[in-house]
Design a protein that fits this description.
Radius of gyration of chain B: 16 Å
Number of helices of chain B: 3
Distance between the termini of chain B: 23 Å
Strand content of chain B: 25-35%
Largest interface: A-B, 51 and 50 residues
Number of helices of chain A: 5
Radius of gyration of chain A: 20 Å
Shape of chain A: globular
Structural class of chain B: alpha+beta
Number of strands of chain A: 12
Number of domains of chain A: 1
Helix content of chain A: 10-25%
Oligomer: heterodimer
Order of helices and strands of chain B: EEEEHEEHHEEEE
Distance between the termini of chain A: 52 Å
Structural class of chain A: alpha+beta
Number of strands of chain B: 10
Shape of chain B: globular
Largest sheet of chain A: 6 strands, antiparallel
Strand content of chain A: 15-25%
Order of helices and strands of chain A: HEEEEHEEHHEEEEEEH
Helix content of chain B: 10-25%
Chain lengths: ~280, ~210
């Protein structure tokens, strides 16, 4: 909270007061223009697209071009990145979590896995993953679920829900309530037992775990950083999430992830067909 | 007079009774307090199922909210089917099979190209049924979310391997759902012929609504 001056009775005093706040540095903020001291050696600063630390309980939303890489880092070990992904040119095409697990014949995400749309295409692929605790089943916390656990769950209070954060992030790209779809939560896991039971794997984990996603289409990604809906802790526990994106080449025909499975290859063929013009 | 075994145990008078042909869509309102019974007439027929709040159809069934609330993937007798806003829409009040699926989603022409090959692109699919039924009420593609698959079996192995396997159902088995709010139910009587969800033979189902 900024220090309260004694009096701001005229517009120029108010202007000076506002301007004096510029240049303040906090942990959770975007960096403009983007800079990052820890890019892969092959990436130049000119290719940086986005550098932002998303607040605990906050959200980010970004349009990324085909070929871009998005690196998410769980800075302090307790981030929970609940995501939505849309085809930026036609947002009625979006992440389909059911197809993502069904078509890859597996419930768990990790390096090499694809995030599939409802149109048989791959929106993003996971090129690197040092976390391996991700959740395709439990979705986003809601105002109701947060109110039940923390006593409150609104955007205007201290315990905003992932769903409300996704709604705001989607709204800023012209999307609405009908567009916020089933989600995936990165960095927090959910293990399935033989009877269908779900055991959340919440951590907190070692700081610095990261996942790198490659945009296989022009996408809008919305990220909410709120406690996992099944986080058993009585306190609203979440830490900042760092997002860094840079331009990269479109996936070539010889790419290992593209060719890893027959289903995945057909998803890439469908993407390549979509962009054929 | 012949007794109709499919009406056994229904809590009230029948207000609607309809056979949904194999491969077809179906849409019907179910008022709060009414019970919808689905009868798998010939056995092992997947019934893809979406729910919209009648008063505000941007509120709709949420597989993930339902799963998270019970910390279990499978839908069983007693499962409350929650909306994307966390409210109970319907409750499974009886089921003749142990559990139903809500992680397998709906087949589509597009996903069929991934699962089976591009030769299946022209086959009929559940998303086609969902679209057709929803378009008549002003809903569209973005209103289609993860659905329920009644009578479909999708186990998850310890290593995460999952898939649609042989069903648990048999001719005449039923599931009952009580509406907890006024809802619109949208069904695709699954036309899939490339996996075991319909025993490779889509068949009719019967939908009975009672007061």
């Amino acid at each position: 909270m900024a220090e309260q001056p004694a009096s701001l009775a005229n517009p120029l005093a108010a202007r000076d007061h506002a301007r004096a706040q510029g240049g303040t540095v906090v942990e959770a903020m975007p960096v403009l223009p983007p800079t990052a001291g820890d890019l892969p050696a092959s990436v130049s600063t000119e290719d940086l697209l986005w550098e932002e630390t998303i607040a605990a309980g906050g959200y980010g939303a970004r349009r990324l071009p085909r070929g871009a890489r998005l690196r998410l880092i769980d800075l302090h070990g307790d981030a929970a990145a609940t995501i939505q992904i849309f085809n930026a040119a036609m947002p009625s095409e979006r992440l389909n979590v059911a197809d993502t697990v069904k078509i890859q014949w597996n419930a768990y995400l990790g390096a090499g896995k694809l995030l599939l749309s409802d149109m048989g295409r791959v929106l993003m692929s996971i090129t690197e993953d040092s976390a391996a605790t991700h959740d395709c089943f439990c979705g986003a916390s809601t105002p109701a679920s947060n109110a039940a656990r923390y006593g409150a769950g609104s955007n205007s209070g201290d315990f905003p829900s992932a769903r409300d954060r996704l709604l705001l992030g989607a709204a800023k790209h012209g999307l609405g309530r009908r567009d916020v779809h089933p989600s995936i939560t990165l960095f927090k896991g959910a293990r399935v037992g033989p009877d269908g039971s779900i055991t959340p794997d919440i951590g907190p984990f070692a700081p610095g775990r990261q996942i790198v996603l490659r945009a296989e289409m022009d996408v809008i990604i919305v990220i909410a950083n709120c406690p996992h809906v099944l986080d058993p802790r009585p306190d609203y526990s979440v830490t900042p999430l760092r997002a860094t994106a840079w331009r990269g080449p479109i996936t070539p025909e010889g790419d290992d992830i593209r060719n890893a499975t027959p289903e995945g290859l057909r998803a890439f063929l469908n993407v390549e067909d979509h962009y054929r013009c | 007079m012949t007794v109709d075994p499919h009406l056994d145990g229904l809590p009230g008078a029948v207000v609607h009774d309809e056979i949904v042909p194999a491969r077809a869509p179906w849409l019907h309102a179910v008022a709060a307090g009414q019970t919808l019974r689905i009868v798998d007439l010939e056995g092992n027929q997947a019934v893809d199922f979406l729910i919209y709040a009648a008063a505000d159809d941007a509120e709709r069934y949420s597989a993930q909210d339902t799963v998270a609330a019970q910390a279990n993937l499978f839908l069983r007798t007693g499962t409350r089917l929650l909306s994307n806003e966390g409210r109970p829409m319907m409750t499974i009040t009886a089921s003749a099979i142990p559990y139903h699926d809500t992680i397998g989603g709906a087949c589509s022409c597009e996903s069929n190209t991934l699962r089976y090959g591009h030769h299946t692109k022209s086959q009929h699919a559940c998303v086609e049924n969902f679209l057709e039924a929803n378009l008549g009420q002003g809903r569209a593609k973005r209103d289609i979310v993860s659905n329920i698959n009644f009578f479909m079996n999708v186990p998850v192995e310890p290593d995460g391997a999952l898939g649609i396997v042989d069903g648990l159902s048999a001719p005449g088995l039923t599931v009952d759902l009580r509406a907890d709010m006024d809802v619109i139910v949208v069904v695709s009587n699954c036309p899939q012929i490339n996996n075991p969800c319909n025993a490779f033979n889509p068949t009719p189902v019967r939908m009975i609504i009672c007061a």
